[in-house]
Design a protein that fits this description.
globular, single chain, 11 strands, 3-stranded antiparallel β-sheet, alpha/beta
Length: 219
């Protein structure tokens, strides 16, 4: 399997040097010079890992991360910030924006490669493959016990969202926002109906109800 990495930075030297070394490791690397281009590239290539600079023209890394997290098809993507801003408040803002890791520049290339390998291992784990259930984000299918399960678009997006962060409790408001969007009006029982249908198709053990809060994915 060839992992896809999106590298976003406004410094051409960084894009060239880091991109070259990651490609030497066998990764498929796409680059972007600003946040908006990074979001577009992420939606086009569906990368396993995004490395985002924080300070970029137009749309910065934090804003780009928040924009990516709104798209269910990027729910399983690991996002890490690669930036010279190492202060605690900046790191907190990065994690609040939806980032999974924060790598401070300057960083030695061998160290960065090791971090990338660790992050991609996390991305592989987020594919929710425990031997009986696999979510294939590339082909937009679910495989259970070796058999392919057909899921309507919203059911797949809901499952992909929950499985992107196992054990994390997603509130109903978060689910509405990320799967249906703020502009779409849905009934109060819409999530419950979709959860019930998912459980009928993949079994009860993977989706747990946290009463009064929301739902979470379990292996």
């Amino acid at each position: 399997m060839t992992y896809r990495i999106l590298l976003a930075d406004d410094e051409p030297d960084i894009l060239e040097f880091v991109g070259y070394n990651l490609r030497r490791e066998g990764y498929e690397v796409t680059t972007a010079a600003d946040g908006r281009a990074a979001v577009r590239a992420a939606l086009e290539t569906l990368p396993h890992l995004v490395l985002l600079d924080v300070m970029m023209p137009g749309m910065g890394g934090f804003e780009a991360c928040r924009a990516m997290r709104k798209h269910p098809q990027l729910a399983g993507t690991v996002i890490a910030f690669l930036t010279a801003r190492g202060e605690d408040c900046s790191q907190i803002e990065g994690f609040d924006a939806g980032g999974d890791d924060y790598i401070a520049k300057p960083v030695r290339m061998n160290v960065l490669v090791s971090r990338v390998k660790a992050l991609l291992k996390r991305a592989e784990e987020s594919s929710a493959d425990d031997g009986s259930l696999k979510i294939d984000h590339e082909r937009h299918i679910v495989i259970k016990d070796g058999e392919q399960i057909a899921l309507p678009r919203k059911e797949f997006q809901l499952l992909a969202l929950l499985a992107s962060r196992p054990q994390k409790v997603f509130t109903r408001d978060e689910i509405y926002d990320k799967v249906w969007g703020d502009s779409v009006v849905v009934g109060d029982r819409t999530i419950d109906v979709h959860i019930r249908k998912l459980r009928e198709k993949i079994g009860d053990r993977h989706i747990a109800t946290v009463k009064g809060v929301g739902y979470k994915f379990e292996f």
